[in-house]
Amino acid sequence: MDDGENRLGELLLRLAKRARVRQVGRLAPLGLTPAQARALGAIGRFERPPRMAELAELLGVVPRAVTPIVDALEEAGLVTRQVDPGNRRATLLVLTGSGKRMRTRLHQARAGAAEDLFACLTEAQQATLQALLEKVEEQTRDEHGPRHHGRSRESLPTGEAPVL
Questions:
Q1: pLDDT band for position 143 (50/70/90)?
Q2: Region Disordered: start and end of each range (predicted)?
Q3: What does the pLDDT read at residue 2?
Q4: What share of the chain in percent tops pLDDT 90?
Q5: Cα dihedral sign for 6, 138, 63, 81?
Q6: In a domain? residue 159
Q7: Range of the domain at 85
Q8: For residue 35, which of 26, 24, 45 has the smallest C-alpha distance?
């Protein structure tokens, strides 16, 4: 492997860590853990209220891992659980009004963290970097993204930016 290739990978990992640290710092005043923020953002990206298992799949975790996260979101009044009328054994996750407002605040916090990180670049440089990263993401999306195993289109999230 060429040193340039190794440097690019290392640089990307370091910057991803710095971006995460900045986001965590911006999320802390909102009272949510990164996992709760990620779950709340993901719930809002579905076209219809997702089932717990669909949320777990989107987040890339086992279903039992989302239970304590959803418990905390429910306790905070950000989501409610509702019985799925199509399958009474399944639970749907519905954002409350407070959850929708918090999701907006999360988006603003993440955007602020990204603005801080990329402030040293001009708008043109940011646009070029974004285009390059989108190309890499597009080429690798199917390799490691969530598996939807033939689920119907309405159960999949809308085309919003991914949650970090």
A1: low
A2: 138-164
A3: 58
A4: 68
A5: positive
A6: no
A7: 13-140
A8: 24
